[in-house]
Amino acid sequence: MRINKFLAEQGVASRRGADEIISAGRVTLNGRPAKPGDEVEDGDAVAVDGKLLSHKVKYEYYLLNKPKGYVCTVSDDKGRKTVMDLLPAGAGRVVPVGRLDYATEGLLILTNDGDLAYRLTAPQSEIPKMYLVRVEGGITPVQLNRLRAGVEIEPGVVTKKCKVVVTETDKKFTKLHVTLTEGKNREIRKMFEAVGLHVDFLKRIRVGDLSLTGLDRGACRKLTPEEIFYLKNL
User: Fold this and answer.
1) Which of 42, 111, 153, 218 has the fewest C-beta atoms under 10 angstroms from its C-beta?
2) Would you state the CATH architecture of domain 3-52?
């Protein structure tokens, strides 16, 4: 298999992150510096920062209710808390699947199953993800229709059509459920900014049919075999 996939399955990093550490010269294959396109066969010696990796992989899958104030990385050079701090003792070398920004809460999957992570984040998968959004003030029908039809969030970057439903509103705030099938960086915040609204609370509450039911903020649990099967067949 490709070396970036091998590293992802070992829980070292995502495939993209694996390419970065390979390019940085931190990975060796059979004693020589690895290259991003290298293939790993049974019996090959792969090491990261001098530490030899095993070819045996025990897949682990976790569901986390991420609080704000944590970053979705394995480590942080600014010394901020990461989602890894919320995993139970004894958890393996899993990595976050996708990202929620520092101020965003909600459903986050962590695993060392590189194939599943890729399937859940690949743009062509179009897996629906639902968010609870709270904005300051009210929202007009014109603003709603613009959000649903797709808005330009950066020069030349237009969001896909999405589902937006108002769940609660008054003069001070409006709560909405927004369902996306893509995952651009800070997409929802930029969408609402594009129509003149400020998001003051954002939480991912569902990925497909997987929800946070029964899971407190900051809590983490293993996915059930049924949930794993469901995600693999989305």
Assistant:
1) 42
2) Roll (3.10)
